[in-house]
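Example record

The entry below shows one chain as it appears in the dataset: sequence first, then structure tokens.
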Amino acid sequence: MRVSGSDAVRIGEAISRRKLSPRQLTRATFCDNQGEPIDDGLAVAFRASASYTGEDVVELQGHGSPVVLSMLLERCLELGARMARPGEFSERAYLNGKLDLVQAEAVADLIASGSKSMARAALRSLKGEFSRRITKLDEEIKAIRVQIEASIDFADEAEAFLDAEGVEVRLRALEAKIEAVISEATCGAALSKGLRLVLAGAPNVGKSSLLNRLVGLERAIVSAEPGTTRDILNEQTLIAGQQVELVDTAGLRSTLSEVEAEGVKRARAAIAEADVRIDLWDASRPETRGVWPPAEAGQIVIEVMNKQDLVATKDTSCLGISAKEGAGLGELSREIERQVIVAHGEPTFLARTRHLEALKHCREALAMALREHQSSNALELVAEALREAHTALAEIVGLTTTEDLLSEIFRNFCLGK
């Protein structure tokens, strides 16, 4: 049990009835307000300068029984503590300068990581990899701002402060760097939310059978009757060490059934949102090939012929499998892994949607600064655009934030972090 705040050490010493030395485990008997033993455990104190939250912290380590922990919690509350809000320890660490906002978010991402890749990327963000990239970009933007604003303030000596050609070269270099960070952040954001793999095809081509094979469970209803799947079915699994959401969809066809038509509509929406698509068709029914909608930009499409056990001659233009018999599934799994790894790899850091939006805002502001510099050389407008770029980057690490943003970020943390 962790207590943070100015009274943390007082509360810890009252419960343990021992003097607690900083960063030193002390065995103690935890007692209630009548002096009756609650548990035999360990207590450790951390002074503000060396604690996670930037405040005095005490940790009480007991035997883990819910009853014992409840009694210990009751004693802490009697001594003046209160229950922490979700994420409040990390929020205090941020407010006290122990973590920037990206690192605080990485704590939640590390806890929620659903794959080795995500855990490693979250840990790199927690250690400051993403923050350092942002800080370096921001320093370069500020250096250009200093030159431009100095030339505005001292217009008669502008040439001494400003090299017009040099500014353009530096702005272009910054644009290239921000594009590189956006590319990595996009990869990190995709990993953060998990990849979405959608099974698409006409009715009764074996999508549900394939989903059951890929997750190793009988999750989808399998029937010879076309149109059995009427809604979206989602399952989580690991592929190539990454969290993947497998999505089974209704068969794509025209129908007079209002319920099935709604299922087809939802299927098309899910297919459009897929990171990876498996376009499935039935080897015994060639007319089921090519019913899929065109691929969206950036989508990975793997065409698969199912029910190859029903035909004598196999089509070699795409992967052939039998979801029923299990033939070809190893090759399909390897192809999915290859596409996932090639397309998304393992990002240097983890990113969130808000990070991407801020980076894109920064990119737009830099492009505006370059256009103003080239067209009008209006230094005031260039300086304003650079100020916007700086503000966008500052939002990422939390140098400029709103209470609403902080509330949204930390309320999604688990208790105790």
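Notes for this example: The beta strands are 2-4, 26-31, 37-46, 57-61, 195-201, 233-239, 242-248, 276-282, 300-306, 319-320. The first strand starts at residue 2 and ends at 4.
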